[in-house]
Amino acid sequence: MTTTASLAPAAAxxxxxxxxxxxxxxxxxxxxxxxxxGFVGSxxxxxxxxxxxSCLGAPDAFAATGSPDAPAGERTGIVLAxxxxxxxxxxxxxxxxxxxxxxxxxxxxxxxxxxVLGHVAKVYGITGPVSCVSGTTALASEALAMAEAVLGSxxxxxxxxxxxxxxxxxxxxxxxxxxxxxxxxxxxALPAGDVAVGLLLRRATGGEGPVLGRPVLGRPVPGAWAExxxxxxxxxxxxxxxxxxxx
Length: 247
Description:
Blueprint: E1 7-15, H1 44-56, H2 59-63, E2 76-81, H3 87-98, H4 105-110, H5 115-124, E3 130-133, H6 139-152, E4 158-165, H7 170-180, E5 195-203, H8 214-217, H9 223-229, H10 233-242
Helix pairs in contact: 1-5
């Protein structure tokens, strides 16, 4: 699929596992992520929240980027891309039920992949379209194509694209291995650990710097990046290109 010749990043963020697991990688966090109120036990939602906040800035500053005729929140959309979603929450909740334990309502709430987007939207007053895309092949391209379609609708001026994946657990590894052994082409690679990438995108009008076309997304990357980021590599390259730090 051809994608993204008309998208230009206005802001970008990458977060990888914190501590020794992320040494030498883009977005390595020096400390663990702060918790997000109402979300427990998993890094999925804190990762999404952290890259969203990094791209959007402080809520008051974000609101100031709008105008009376085009409030920032009304003119902003969100697209979330993930292969497996919050596997930590989903599997913890399922295991509790299988063990006959009382169901935790917090786990039920946050097992919905887009629940953290509702939290982000509330904090920033975002009322534009919110979408979630998943798939096993070319997911980064699919996510960027979705972003391009939403921006092309004219309903928004900017779009927050978040790609996120938790470190593969036993179930995710099994599903991925099973799909890889089938007759069809295998799924995109999973990242080695927790990864989130945020891109605040606008329609390219010229003069913004690199747009997200094939020269950016098709760029060779270090082997460590491919192993660490899996299917998110094209989004990491886009973020690092915006920051002037791409390989």
